[in-house]
Amino acid sequence: MARKAFNLIVMIAAFVVASSTTNAYAQLQAREYEVKAAFLYNFAKFVEWPAKPLADTSATIIIGVLGEDPFGGALETIKGKTIEGRQVVTKRFKTVRDLEFSHILFISSSEKEHLAEIMKTLKGMNVLTVGETERFVEVGGIINLYIESNKVRFEINVDNAERAGLRLSSRLLNVAKVVK
Amino acid sequence: MRLGSGFRVLNVRFSTSFGRSFTVVRIVICALLLGFVAIVSGPRDLARAQERPADLTELTLEELLEIEVLSIDVLGTHTHLAGQWMLTYKYMFMWMDGNRDGTDRISHRKVHEKFDMAPTEMAMEMHMPMVMYAPTDDLTLHAMLPYIRKSMKHITRDGVRFSERTEGIGDLKVEALYTLYGNVRRGPHRFILDAGLSFPTGSIGEKDFGPDRSMGKFRLEYPMQLGSGTFDLHPGITYLGQAENWAWGAEVIPTIRTGKNEHGYRLGNQYFLGARLVRKLTDWLSTSVRINGQIWANIHGRDRALNPAEEPTKDPNIQGGKRVDLLLGINLYVPKGVLKGQRLAIEGGLPIYQLLDGPQLQTRWQLTAGWQWVF
């Protein structure tokens, strides 16, 4: 019995040691919200806000999340990065009543029942609204993220972007599904 | 090297009948594992790791659009994304050799003190085709119909040896896996409710010849039948966790028998508790270690065609037991290309604890190989 237990321990130890000597391989895949966080960062590069919010060269670019935060730690990867010299800051808002200005506002699917109220609150503000809910762009949202064939895609409502006073780069429109 | 009923090579005993020596299986499993790890831990993996940055914000929009969202990969997810199908074929081989009463090994002569016959060894093979479908991210449906082959060897008090064989479909099992907490897309922690039901499609009337073939075929003992004969419930709960290169999980799944079958008995309830740890080595290879604990109760009622005094396998009151198995596995996954979404898994192991309401045949080792295709 002791010999059998010893042999088992040796086998397990060899297995664990062998496993731990290899290097972790860079993922060719990524978690959904890591990809979506990277898209939020990229959107900031291809959207023009009116001069007023960004007049100060030390101004930050604020990316907010409204509702239940699905990103986990994924948003930390973009926090502190810079876009054209402006530092990215992330903020979280539990409800529409907590909202402060954000250049990009990700509206979580937890808020899908409150979209009308949210869009009404944001009316006239130069906010790029990003969602992940069916019909998001129909109720006033600008960019909707969705999964197709295991990849993240996005659709853009250009009319809603114009109403928000935002100018979207043609490079962004070329890779999106454009909705009017 | 000696030939005959068995032979030795390098002091390792091979039996020319069923199964292989425990020592050889152990050596083969270790060699395979170390070999795979040695092959995949070479410098070319580091070079490939430098082709793509770990920071996704360094990718262009076009490159981000090409990233596969991590859903099913070498770590596995247990459930699937909405609209996904999965086909699986799993093969399992279990070898049982020698008798045990409680935790003590006993000889067949000891068994003969009370019974006319003693089982000496048993092999069981199961071919398990399965299909899974996820109508939503939170719900995965699963169906499995096994094909089983069993063989058992016996020895009588007079020293007459004989074999029995059965083969056919087992009990159909359907299952719904519902995510109670967490999300298959986001991770890292999930709790999944398992609700399973098995149908008595496996035969409980299997027959074969005894030691005297002139007497014709007799109903075979409980372990040689192919099904339970009853509708059985499989409620359970599974916990899954996942990090960058690790996945882990635990599950509790009882099997609750209902009613009695047409031969007047009901197999004992079973209780399964398992824990698993998976280590991702590359995006196509992972290794795993699993500990499974099982408790199974004695049979309620009795098949009147079986004489409990003949052999312990025919006594319904000594079929229960407890066992803890340690299993090691390798999982291969195809992340891209024509064969993308396919996975091959091999797992082998043996009991580290057995307590049987014996005398019963003890489990020596088991091997499972499986293929999966997600699309």
How would you characterize the overall build of this protein?
Chain A has helices at residues 2-20, 32-45, 115-122, 158-163, 170-174; strands spanning 29-30, 47-48, 61-66, 82-83, 86-93, 104-107, 128-131, 143-148, 151-157, 167-168, 177-179. Chain A is α/β, with parallel strands linked by helices and 180 residues long. Chain A has an 8-stranded mixed sheet. A two-stranded antiparallel sheet of chain A has the order 2-10. The longest helix of chain A has 19 residues, at 2-20. Chain A is globular, with a radius of gyration of 22 Å. Mean pLDDT of chain A is 82; it is low at 16-28. Chain B has helices at 22-40, 43-49, 61-64, 108-112, and strands at residues 6-9, 12-15, 68-69, 85-102, 104-106, 117-133, 139-144, 147-156, 161-169, 172-181, 189-199, 207-209, 217-219, 232-242, 246-257, 265-266, 270-282, 285-296, 300-301, 321-333, 342-374. By secondary structure, chain B is mainly beta. The termini of chain B are far apart. The longest helix of chain B is centred in the N-terminal third of the chain and has 19 residues, at 22-40. Chain B contains 4 helices and 21 strands. Chains A and B meet through helix 1, strand 1, helix 2 and strand 9 of A and helix 1, helix 2, helix 3, strand 3 and strand 17 of B. Strand 1 (29-30) of chain A pairs parallel with strand 3 (68-69) of chain B.
Give me the number of helical elements of chain B.
4
Strand order of the largest sheet of chain A: 4-5-3-6-7-8-9-11
Helix content of chain A: 25-40%
Segments of chain A where pLDDT lies below 50 for 5+ residues?
16-28
Alpha-beta content class of chain A: alpha/beta
Q: Say how many strands of chain A there are.
A: 11
Low-pLDDT segments of chain B: 1-22, 35-53
Series of H and E elements of chain A: HEHEEEEEHEEEHEHE
Output the number of helix runs of chain A.
Answer: 5
Mean pLDDT of chain B: 84
Q: What does the largest sheet of chain B look like?
A: 11 strands, antiparallel, barrel
Q: Provide mean pLDDT of chain A, rounded.
A: 82
**Sheet/helix structural class of chain B:** mainly beta
List the secondary-structure elements of chain B in sequence, H or E: EEHHHEEEHEEEEEEEEEEEEEEEE
Shape of chain B: elongated
- Sheet-strand content of chain A, in percent, reads 25-35%
Report the radius of gyration of chain A as a whole number of Å: 22 Å
Query: Helical content of chain B, roughly?
Result: under 10%
Largest sheet of chain A: 8 strands, mixed
Largest interface: A-B, 43 and 54 residues
Quote the distance from N terminus to C terminus of chain B. Answer: 50 Å
